[in-house]
## 1
Amino acid sequence: MANVPNRQRDYNEVAGSSIHRLAGLADGIFAVGMTLLVLGLAVPAMDTVKSEGDLLRQLGGLLPAVVTYFMSFLTLGIFWVAQQTQLGRLERANRNFTWIHLGFLLAVTLIPFSTLLLARFHWSRVALVEYWLNIFVLGSVLLVAFEYGARAKLFPEADTASIAHLTRRRVIGAQTLYLLGMLLCIFDTHWSIAAIVAIQLNYAIAPRIPLLRRL
Amino acid sequence: MANVPNRQRDYNEVAGSSIHRLAGLADGIFAVGMTLLVLGLAVPAMDTVKSEGDLLRQLGGLLPAVVTYFMSFLTLGIFWVAQQTQLGRLERANRNFTWIHLGFLLAVTLIPFSTLLLARFHWSRVALVEYWLNIFVLGSVLLVAFEYGARAKLFPEADTASIAHLTRRRVIGAQTLYLLGMLLCIFDTHWSIAAIVAIQLNYAIAPRIPLLRRL
Amino acid sequence: MANVPNRQRDYNEVAGSSIHRLAGLADGIFAVGMTLLVLGLAVPAMDTVKSEGDLLRQLGGLLPAVVTYFMSFLTLGIFWVAQQTQLGRLERANRNFTWIHLGFLLAVTLIPFSTLLLARFHWSRVALVEYWLNIFVLGSVLLVAFEYGARAKLFPEADTASIAHLTRRRVIGAQTLYLLGMLLCIFDTHWSIAAIVAIQLNYAIAPRIPLLRRL
Amino acid sequence: MANVPNRQRDYNEVAGSSIHRLAGLADGIFAVGMTLLVLGLAVPAMDTVKSEGDLLRQLGGLLPAVVTYFMSFLTLGIFWVAQQTQLGRLERANRNFTWIHLGFLLAVTLIPFSTLLLARFHWSRVALVEYWLNIFVLGSVLLVAFEYGARAKLFPEADTASIAHLTRRRVIGAQTLYLLGMLLCIFDTHWSIAAIVAIQLNYAIAPRIPLLRRL
């Protein structure tokens, strides 16, 4: 009977199975991450600005920070949409699935750090590779979460194969493009940054270019 | 059949369609934005205050920061209500609509930056125009989101024309007033700030003045 | 018919009526506020600590900051419970009610500022009165929101009189105690701080002391 | 009748009983806490980095901060899952239960402080004991919340005994391990940090080791 302590039952079987709570935590982390990014845009100090011209020049100097800000907002947006899409298809969650997603959220919280690093050292391959690694971890963990969920039958059975196909094609296509974009830093890190922004705009705007839609 | 991988089906058709998640992310971003504004109110440093009089004087010196703080909280409140109103009318969302709203939220995260800039350089037309641009983008993107949603039939058919009329009149009326308020900076940026606060109070308090209700 | 633009209809009639969104925004603002408070607890700088004894002494020096931190967390907790109680009784919301609550949330976002001010200048009556004013505004605006909601028939009719009685007694009782606590700063601000903490603990722990339950 | 003011009725009987709001506040606080942790990872200053080698060395110097960051994210994840599990089993909440959980959330907001303290003074027993105390309070308050909820009949009657058994075994097992881990600081604080990370990984990954599953 249910009210007799059951020694065979495991704490982990009853833990962490609320999709709603996981979505709530994720929305909060993405929201804070997106808003913290703006702290990378330092408002000019008062004593460096004596005239309108000074202010315009100082704001112009924020351009690299604005580009990385925009890039990181796109990154967070893309992965927020991707996670929402995965969670929206779930029939139920369990503890392991929840912990894989907590790993994903750990990588999300690192985006403001990676962004500030790249904004400050945009000439550095070390900073660029660190940024790319962050994107790579985000994509990989989301794929791992999907593969685990498919094996643990967390998605509706009739849909799983179809979602699997779309998810794998999307993650592998996107990660291949990001890898190629990152490799451009062999020539110049600014080419890599331009390529990554272009890839992200492609996923955000989703233009109707047949070749790109395949990826 | 649903469990056969369907090569014609596109990832984007299944992505990003949860109104609930979009509302959760938006509430988080507005909440963080509204709370970060307060960081613009710097607590006086300990060594500058020796007496009650010193503290009173220092708090008095925060007045420009308090005015821009109040103005920005009103801005965020007005656009939070506007977005809530739009999302509350939706029948369903899709990926493109979600991305237009992510663009709107990008502009929301910039409000703390624009606010701090204007608080620090309240004499500067550059800072004022930057602030106005932020408001302009917020209003425009919300209108674009509505127009897209109406064309993509995301609103209940019976309501769309009526909501369209109210939304367009509201956005165009408000943006015209903001533009006029901004142009006052030709004379003095402080007139512009006073005008923008007055316009915002009008929308927040919604007094029963026939002329203003038309806008 | 509904799909004919209706010139008599006002934007404000359809705006801002989601209780769920208001609760989501409020939870976010309280959550950020409660977490930002901790930034008032400055971790000792590395070069000021050479030994375990140094660290212990530095942590001891954080005591005033810890007391105001605890006091402010209690304040936010009390008003979060109070707002939750009011929203939980609502049958529906409207735009004016939403804006009164946005005013309440504006006062919530100021609590981290007031807290840091009082932690830094705990000897100052100016800082104490500013803190008390913040609590006073929180309580008053919540009462105004209730009175407006009662007149606008936003609460279930059968309950309104009973909720009105409990709400008024609670707000007026608590605000009278806070006022008396604040007035102790005529003698010493530290007495006021102790009194305010005691009042808040009374409301958080809700002991079964007949006299206090009346208030 | 309900609309007659009832002098016997107490404000506290109607206050603070929304599980949904409590979950929303908790998700927000955990989300902000998890994201604030990253502020402990200071991006290297611009003038300390002249080459790729400098940047690599500076990032290497962040290693202790990364370890405590990872440890604290695990801590927050474990207690988020634990709280979610408890709230997910609730049938209803009341004001006292809500205040016990607010006490739990107070301890959650302190984790970024404890983390930064330990990252900065990883050689210090004082910092380590403070960190352990934070974990101890988190576990204890969650157990107190459960015991109160069981006595106040907030859980479904048929399940209470079974949940009680699992909850007590889990909290006492975990807290015993944390205590042993902390005591290793008698030899070296770095052993304690390694032990705590190992314990947390055990709970996050939940390996199928019979001995550990018992705890």
Note: Chain D has nine helices and no strands.
## 2
Amino acid sequence: MNICQTNSKLVLRLSKKLLLLLILQFSFLISISGYLLSQENALDLTDFKNRAETIKNLGLSQEKAYEFLKILTSVGSRLTGSPEAARAVELMVRLMSDLGFDQVWKEPVQVNHWVRGKAEKGLVKSQKFGQRRINICALGNSIGTPSNGIEAGVVEVNTFDRLSELKETIEGKIVFFNVPMDRTIVEPFAAYGRAAQFRLRGASEAARYGARAVLIRSVTYRIDDYPHTGLMVYDEQYPKIPAAAISTSDAERLSRWLKDDPELRIFLKMHCQQLEPVISSNVIGQLTGTEKPEEIILVGGHLDSWDLSPGAHDDASGCVVAIEALRLIKESGLRPKRTIRAVLFMDEEFGGTGGRAYVRAEARQKEKHLVAIEQDHGGFVPIGLAIGGGERVLNKIKTIENILKPLGINWIRTGGGGVDIGPLVEQGVIPGSLIPDSQRYFDYHHSALDVPSAVHPRELEFQAIILAIVVYFLAQEGL
Amino acid sequence: MNICQTNSKLVLRLSKKLLLLLILQFSFLISISGYLLSQENALDLTDFKNRAETIKNLGLSQEKAYEFLKILTSVGSRLTGSPEAARAVELMVRLMSDLGFDQVWKEPVQVNHWVRGKAEKGLVKSQKFGQRRINICALGNSIGTPSNGIEAGVVEVNTFDRLSELKETIEGKIVFFNVPMDRTIVEPFAAYGRAAQFRLRGASEAARYGARAVLIRSVTYRIDDYPHTGLMVYDEQYPKIPAAAISTSDAERLSRWLKDDPELRIFLKMHCQQLEPVISSNVIGQLTGTEKPEEIILVGGHLDSWDLSPGAHDDASGCVVAIEALRLIKESGLRPKRTIRAVLFMDEEFGGTGGRAYVRAEARQKEKHLVAIEQDHGGFVPIGLAIGGGERVLNKIKTIENILKPLGINWIRTGGGGVDIGPLVEQGVIPGSLIPDSQRYFDYHHSALDVPSAVHPRELEFQAIILAIVVYFLAQEGL
């Protein structure tokens, strides 16, 4: 072994040491810079809390969501395809423009155009006790009766099984589905889901056995004189027959009358029909992100309503809290890093064509939606927040749990979703919903009672405030 | 050492061993029996859950609390000392008797008898814009004006400090306390507490500087034409002067008018006065405990109301949910081990004489109250449960947290209390309150708007159901 060898070995050893040192130093630098970067990006919770406080104070002192609700409901009911829905589109474009959102635009949606026509007529005719009027309304999508009406005997059922048992007796009759919402279910939407199936598919189930029409007990807990409409669908296998809702008061009476006189007959006249499809619009407004404008936090509701009322809860409330959330962020002087977008979807009630048109729109190609929050549970005081995306997202949102709790958000859970954001969720976008207390919701839902006075300005504003805080957090922090 | 000695030592040793064995055996038996006893007494949660389910189903399907509310409010307003309050006493005795409670009785309470007399008159008189009517109502306990009224210039203030600054200008004037409830405070009761101090002691604070009368902005978030009354008290150091509430709409207008014409004068005529005290009653009904009848779980509200409305929320709701809670337990076939008692206190609004009379009643000597639950926050959907007694009690109640949560009880916290149970709590009784969402409460509170239609049958019933489950749990488990 000569000196060179020794030297070269030494050099090798030194080189190895140096390399190791360099590697260590490098990884130290990486970890340090990573740490510094994460420090720079970490949410300053105290600062965020102050911003949330500004949003809350602005919202509660002004209660602008309710002002917007009055503007939107001023057009009257907004049935998909109707002139009123078209006016609502223009009104909301103007409102969001006047509020100074960064961008406001419309995107086309082709929608069905069903019309009720003249008010329906419903009569009970009995040999025993004469003639009595009943409060009915056509279900959305139903065909009308022949112009001289339908008159037939009645079969009352309270399950599809019972209908099937009685199938021999159905031919030529009007089937009366008298199924109350189950009051013992705490969560009204769960009870609604069960009872609404008779409204949705009762007509075809009855037509299958030869029924001439169906009457569906209105889906509400209350016993009153207001029929509640809603969507029905036909199974193409069976003949289309007229379908109407009957008020709960009259459903109770009709059931008693039928016990008294099983031979009584009902006369129905309904003028509803499908017209040609119409080109309508989704309405979109946004605060464009300063750093990642292509990443979108969406919050929205649906602009259409049923035709019996201005749909104050369903879903003017969802539209105006989305608008108000953006206004609160803007007026608080906050500039979101990512884009916060309010989408007022057209045509939730007749099948969600607006939600589908939204995802198909060309502009979506260059965008990445992180979260889509749909508000369509009424404008009541919010009690919880539901969000998809699993534990990771849940934990992220829980960063601001202590800011949301004092505002009445008792829980943050996995959930969220809705008809309008369904197509986005199918593409992997994380759904969310602010959940209000809904014990009163079905009193108003799809009936003439869903008017602005049924919405409380302060309860509604809490929705906008909490949405503003949540979407601003997501716009800053991403997911 | 002889054999005997040895033997006696042996006997001693054996005896010692035997003694030890006996002691060990005895303590084993004690611990075993203790274990067996505790097993026997341990709450069977599955069984309890089934009982709670029965209570819930019965309550939600019948909504009897609202029926009782209609009965109680049918007498009209129930001002302490009034004939209507006396009728309410008899009506509630009959209701609880008809419901088959084990014992129903009255206990005497001497109450003040303040009367409003003829409707008040309030006019604004301006040289600039003429005469305008304002909506006012006397505050409870106020003296009237002289029979020909009071007319004076007006000084508007929004703090007691401001009043003090302006003290040189107050002599001979009407002081107008124009202090809105702070909308930015999330919890309405907290905002109420701050704003109500002007109603409570504004008159004497103004009289101190020579004011002739005070007008207090009504304590509500809403801007409307309904004045809200409430108790005021006089500081005996200063002259008594008339005190009235002015509607929020008129408070806003008056403030504008004063800017326009600082010289405007107000004319007030109020006919209210104190009559002789009256003997009235607390009304009590109970399900007597089967094992420890002397141990009492109390739940109640106050039977009196202000005179401007039938006090549907304040506090007919508190009375009827207490009654309904007992009915639900009874009708579910449950026999509580300890006594569950509904107490409808007379005279919460005029100072809580009913609550004080209750603790002084002779029958209390033989009783031991474990918990007293007061419901006086309106008949809205319950969101949480507040209870005193510290961690131990909190943990005990949390045994049934998972039964209460699905019914909407988002939290169980330290708290509870109220005017009526105050004297019990002073004696060491643990207070409790079921806390409803109260965002709408002050819309109605102490005004003509507090009518049955402002209460929702299902929301109210949830209170009764949860109270029934909680008081039944306490009656079975003790504290």
Note: The domain at 45-114+276-477 of chain A is CATH 3.40.630.10 (Aminopeptidase).
